[in-house]
Amino acid sequence: MPLKLQKTDTENQLLLERIHHAKRYALVVDKDLCVGCEICKTVCPREAIKVTRAEKKPDEKTQKPTIDVDLDKCHYCGVCNSICPFGAMTVLLDDKNILSVVEKESFPELVREIKVDPTKCDSSCADYAEVCPLNLIAVTYRTPDGKEIENITELSEKEKKSLKPKITIKQEQCPCCRLCELEGPTDAIQVKPIFYGALKINEAKCPEGCRDCLDVCPIKGALYLSEDGKKVKVNELYCVYCGACRVACPVEGALELQRTSVRHTPVKSGAWNKALEKLASTKGIAKELRAKGAAKAKEAVDRRFDGRKTE
């Protein structure tokens, strides 16, 4: 039994703690990073997480959904930490980010494949910082003598050409929307999505004049208004399929979201299969199970032939 259970809820952070004689477990939710999506809630094995549509105030934009975690139900397993595409959840054991479910390969981590080619970056790369909708990209420059410069606007074109640019991305918080790749000033950054799927707006159910989904979407350009300003449209090139729009939508069924696959590290247990059943479509689950089956078959054949070679 824990000596102490406590929950601290502030404007910027939600903190849960379970304190024992020799150990301290904690779950930290960074509210600035949390977009109010449904992914952590969907996969939580103890149904400890609740995501709620924010109350809309008259003549104001809709605020992002709010998150809460049940202090009695949370088991500090780390599933939410490993699956959050925005890096908003952190599980700690004695102040160290240790995820036993990942170490035991019973639950995966998301694969963020983000490549930066510094040879393709020039002085225009400063614009990458403006392109990222979550402010995760910083661009600094070094002079030939090694001095670091952040603001190059006052330099001459000749001085700019002598600088060596460096792009830094907070990858652990990046949902891989690909805006930097598709809208950036050069082709220095390449990104592969984490989640694949489909998002559809059912216009017959969509309330006239409603912009709630557009207001809460964390990725600028994934949802946008039609030219006449009357309908919300989807640009799936940028959508990360987080589900924040679906949580905020006031009408059941007006937004249809399906995740078909998730890029993740290898797993060895059935815990992920149960989570995947909630997270992805039936087709997505079947595709992953087929891939796993093929991988196991190949492994068995490789072992058999390796055994023959040693005979």
User: What structural class is derived from the secondary structure elements?
Assistant: alpha+beta
Distance between the termini: 55 Å
Strand content: 15-25%
The portion of residues assigned to helices is 10-25%
Strand arrangement across the biggest beta sheet: 1-2-3-6
Q: What is the radius of gyration?
A: 23 Å
| CATH topology annotation of the largest domain | Alpha-Beta Plaits
Per DSSP E runs of 2 or more residues, the count of β-strands stands at: 15
- Arithmetic mean pLDDT: 89
Shape: globular
The CATH class label of the largest domain is Alpha Beta
**Major sheet attributes:** 4 strands, antiparallel
How many distinct folded domains?
3
Helix count from the secondary structure assignment: 10
Low-confidence stretches: none
Q: Give the SSE string.
A: EEEHEEHEHEHEEHEHEEHEEHEHH
* CATH architectural arrangement of the largest domain: 2-Layer Sandwich
Give a verbal description of the structure.
- The strands form six sheets. Strands 1-2-3-6 form a four-stranded antiparallel β-sheet. A three-stranded antiparallel β-sheet has the order 9-8-10.
- A hairpin with a 6-residue loop joins β13 (223-225) and β14.
- It folds into three domains: 4-103, Alpha-Beta Plaits; 113-192, Alpha-Beta Plaits, CATH 3.30.70.20; 195-289, Alpha-Beta Plaits (2-Layer Sandwich).
- The mean pLDDT is 89.
- The N and C termini lie far apart (55 Å).
- It is built from ten helices and 15 strands.
- By secondary structure, the chain is an alpha+beta fold.
- The protein has helices at residues 39-43, 79-83, 100-103, 128-131, 157-161, 179-183, 212-216, 244-248, 271-279, 282-310; strands spanning 4-9, 13-19, 24-30, 49-52, 66-69, 89-93, 113-116, 137-142, 148-149, 164-169, 189-192, 195-201, 223-225, 232-234, 255-262.
